[in-house]
Structure of ATP-dependent RNA helicase DHH1:
Amino acid sequence: MSQEDWTSQLKKPTKDTRPQTDDVLNTKGNTFEDFFLKRELLMGIFEAGFEKPSPIQEESIPVALAGRDILARAKNGTGKTAAFVIPSLEKVKPKINKIQALIMVPTRELALQTSQVVRTLGKHCGVSCMVTTGGTNLRDDILRLNETVHVLVGTPGRVLDLASRKVADLSECSLFIMDEADKMLSRDFKTIIEQILIFLPPQHQSLLFSATFPITVKEFMVKHLHKPYEINLMEELTLKGITQYYAFVEERQKLHCLNTLFSKLQVNQAIIFCNSTNRVELLAKKITDLGYSCYYSHARMRQQERNKVFHEFRQGKVRTLVCSDLLTRGIDIQAVNVVINFDFPKTAETYLHRIGRSGRFGHLGLAINLINWNDRFNLYKIEQELGTEIAAIPATIDKSLYVAEDVSTVPTPFPLQPQSLPQPPTQQQQQPPYGSPAQGFTPQNFAHQLPPQGLAPQGFPAAQSLSPQGLAPQGLSPQVLAQGLPQGIPQGLAQGLPQGIMAQGIPPNFAAQPHY
């Protein structure tokens, strides 16, 4: 069968016609066929909607296939995951019933997402992939490892536990991959990674990917990598498709400004970041009380709850996600076109990862930072470190900077496998702790029909039980939280939100109808 014959029979998704930037378009013109990949893998690649390799894929895939160690630095959202998943699937031999590739990631949500990329791209390859993370049932993982596993995706603690118990046999694992290598080699994980390497064969191949490479990564390279091929596609640190603004706002007025932004922006999906778990929960409750659909996620939640939030947000069942820095790394939800830093981050690295949740794979996105008097020096420092400009928010924001003309072309996320999905709620968990779902709501198209009322996933910690005083130590007035939003914005905010964007209130149909 000729190439035209078999490619014409593939079930390809709707073509994504959104404009893209040079972050993913500035390639040498290679195609996936130029890498001499097996047809089964090419079928999975094309059926996932991939057309041509991005720069990081173009640089790393042939080198990885040649067996070289790789140290690759590229921007968030430019295709790093596929850059190591594709060579992994090409090199794995399905007839050998052993773990042949180990992919290490820092968070449980990123592990779920990465494992699904492996399954989606490799669905015709006969490759079995397993995801294992802390916070899940260890016995289930042990039973699963009694079956065939070719690719193991996991977080460091659980992988080390399974390897130490001699349940996960890594003796024939010839491919070791670290995504978000800067985080993986921080003090939180470095010792665990070193212990895991003991269980791998001495001649294994190592692939390290990240957006930043601190000294710890370079030290690891010298110690463990053999003549690595270094890739650096980081002439600029921030994605070209992300427009960045700041609004100078007093702490007690942030809720009002956020409300105004919601009423004026055309939000497909938005992620809002806070600097503490208490502020995450309190802000999510306030957004829900205003009538917007909203979930929240942070590290203190049970893994089952976090999985449910992650899955349903990816599926477009809710428009807004409030979270801590738990979801700053690697999470790829292409429908997100707005990121708001309700609390301004302390470091340039955190800022870079946060705003990278929008503008995925060369598309357009908007990042808005609500800053107060104490943040002004940090804003300047981050601008200098990243070599970027964060401008004052204008009276009106051009929709062409962050809104897709045809939202139907926004690709749907890879569906999670049943083993990754949250379990049905128990009898005690039937009533959501805040908000109420729309009666009879069933999403028919991704991100096209959203619940008009705020709702929380079943089994969440009760947000109402949290005292509004929890935000007071950081300057947010308890009276504002307890009694609602202030009636106006003080005139003294000379660099705050301009009058053109300060329409009061929420349009009555905003929550009921999607804004695109």
Q: What stands out?
A: The longest helix spans residues 108-121. The chain is about 30% helix and 15% strand. The radius of gyration is 23 Å. The domain at 242-403+432-441+453-501 is CATH 3.40.50.300 (Rossmann fold).
